[in-house]
DNA sequence: AATTCCAGCAACCGCTTTTGT
DNA sequence: TACAAAAGCGGTTGCTGGAAT
């Protein structure tokens, strides 16, 4: 028979998350860390499926998330990475600190696609639209979106000259340059090495000392502030009082 | 002012991959 | 090695708010 659903559909709530549900989830994860997602709803007192909890956490509640539109640099980086990786949003997101695959995917579909089309560039092949039909030497990344014939090595070997051909604006960006000129980084993209930055949240503990590196991740405290600003409940409502003293101290030292 | 249209985004669904036994 | 369970991923859907009529 088929797989069992990730959760029994009966009694499982769907649709937008309420502030109360967010609070429960945050409270639980801050207290216990990310453990078995399937068990989270039960343990956290949520009538949601584990999958939904994971999504909500990773896409919206994680304190290391950046909010707001992608910057020019980030956008350019997404374009370049997409040219190499295709629709592998999670891989792309792994190179943009504080951004999620869902966010990048949405941004791609709503903004970047149109932008590229306007510029006369095919968002799928990253080729100029008028010479799209040419089979071309640039096969290295054009088919990333197709049947993924591309081997991972292709992306690496051609990385340097691709850089100039994938619509990059000359002066765009330190972020992009630093990544695209860094052969080892590109290699890591293809070799599935762990992300450079987001790893600090893999264990979902608030201990994010490692987060404040040169990529300017928002700090834990900044995001607490954001959470408090953007959602209409206070820190008590979040159950942050469950944090231990160290965690609380860390939060207090921000301001 | 009311209605329609559309863009943006959060969330869901189903498939694939990874992990554990 | 085979199988099942869990996690992860990418495509798609549907709701919401703002713009246009």
End-to-end Cα distance, whole Å, is 56 Å
Largest β-sheet summary: none
Mean pLDDT: 63
Reading the helices and strands in chain order gives: HHHHHHHHHHHHHH
Structural class estimated from helices and strands: mainly alpha
- Low-pLDDT stretches are 1-5, 132-174, 192-218, 230-255
Number of strands: 0
Helices and strands in order:
Blueprint: H1 19-32, H2 40-44, H3 50-61, H4 72-85, H5 89-94, H6 101-118, H7 139-142, H8 152-157, H9 159-165, H10 174-180, H11 183-190, H12 220-230, H13 235-238, H14 245-252
The protein binds a DNA duplex (21 and 21 nucleotides) through residues 3-4, 6, 14-17, 36-38, 49-52, 54-56, 59-60, 87-90, 101-103, 105-107, 109-111.
